[in-house]
Amino acid sequence: AKLIELHTSQLNKFEQYAQKSQWDEFHSNHYDWWAYPIDESSGHGDMYKLQRKDIEELKQNQLFMKNLNRILELGSMAWGWDLKNRKRFNNCHKYQKWQDWPIRLYKMTKCAVVFGLSEIYHSLKGFGQLLISEGHQFTFY
Questions:
Q1: For 86-99, what is the mean pLDDT?
Q2: Of 78, 76, 64, which is closest to residue 115 (Cα–Cα)?
Q3: What is the pLDDT of residue 1?
Q4: Of 31, 37, 69, 125, which alpha carbon lies 20 to 30 A from 8's?
């Protein structure tokens, strides 16, 4: 229940940022743990780590899944990536670009895998491959 609260609150913030073209807000805030939940430990230990039963319950929650799709879409938009069409947007805002957060892209991609969002996974994977082909480094510390 706490994860759903945090997730919904973050989605509402994302919607506000996008509506106001405040793309820099996506890049300067920390929210990956609850915005893109995965089945791995993090710097917070196991606090946000999903267990198999949690994942199955969340997958059955239609509102959560709808919100998850949207939050992944908005996160991608902040990088100038059109998730649905698997390409960059034209005429992006100056802050609507890749910000060298490979760990965030990893968590978004892993989240898509965990929740069975195949189309989103393939789009994000394609974005990562494009970035690598352009010379971006994907090193995690």
A1: 96
A2: 64
A3: 75
A4: 125
Measured in whole angstroms, the distance separating CA 126 from the mean position of its chain's CA atoms is: 14
pLDDT tier at 141, thresholds 50, 70, 90: low
Q: Residue 110's CB: how many other CB atoms inside 10 A? A: 17
Query: In whole angstroms, what is the distance from residue 14 CA to residue 70 CA?
Result: 9
DSSP code of residue 89: P
Rounded distance, CA 19 to CA 113, Å? Answer: 28
Q: Quick one: average pLDDT of 75-79?
A: 98
Q: Residue 105 CA to chain centroid, in angstroms?
A: 7
Tell how far CA 100 is from the center of its chain.
Answer: 14
Calpha distance 87→81 (Å, rounded): 6
Query: Is the entire prediction scored with pTM above 0.90?
Result: yes
Mapped to the 3 state alphabet, what secondary structure does 39-72 carry? CCCECCECCCCCCHHHHHHHHHCHHHHHHHHHHH
pLDDT, tens digit, for every residue of 103-136? 999 999 999 999 999 999 999 999 999 999 999 9
Q: Which of 75, 82, 54, 68 is nearest to 111 (CA)?
A: 68
